[in-house]
Amino acid sequence: MKKLILLLMVAACSFKPVFSGDKTDVYVAPISGINGIELRNSLNAQFGGIHEQNAKYTLIVNLSEPVTQYKAFERAGDAVWQEVKLNASYTLKQGDKEIASSTESAAESYTFVRYLVASNASYNNAVMNTIHQLSEKISMRVITEVQKQENK
Description:
- About 40% of the residues lie in helices and about 30% in strands.
- The protein is α+β, with helices and mostly antiparallel strands.
- The chain has a single domain, classed as 2-Layer Sandwich (Double Stranded RNA Binding Domain), CATH 3.30.160.150.
- Strands 1, 2, 3, 4 and 5 form a five-stranded mixed beta sheet that branches.
- Helix 2 (about 35-45) crosses helix 3 (about 115-150).
- About 20% of the residues are buried.
C-alpha cells in the first residue's frame, strides 16, 4: 500500500528520471569496426532511436581495440580466466561548439577454455557486455550534458 501511495505521489508531481534519453536529439557519428557498429547501435537505443545528421547534438566516439589480460592460471600454467577491456573517448558537440568530452573504460572477465568454439563464444559475450557497459556510461553523461544545455 505504501508503495502505491509513493508511486501516485511521484506520478502527480510529474517526476521525470534524469537519465531518460527518449527525447534526446543526439546524432551518433559512425564508429569504425564491428565493435564500433555495436556501440553505435547501443547508444542510438539509449537515445531513443537513430537521429539524422542535422540533430541538435552530435556525439563522436573513438573506440579502442579490445585488450585482454590473463587473470587466473591452472597449476600447469595454462590460463583459465581472462579479462577484456575497452576504452572509448568521446566528444559531444552542439553545432560546432564542444560541450563535453571524456574517456570511459569498461572491462569484463570471461572463462578461457581449451575448446576453441567455447572460448570464442565466451570472449565474444564478454566484448558485447563491455560494449553495453560503455554505452550506458557514455549515454548517462551525454544525457546529463544535454539536459544541462536545455535548461540554460
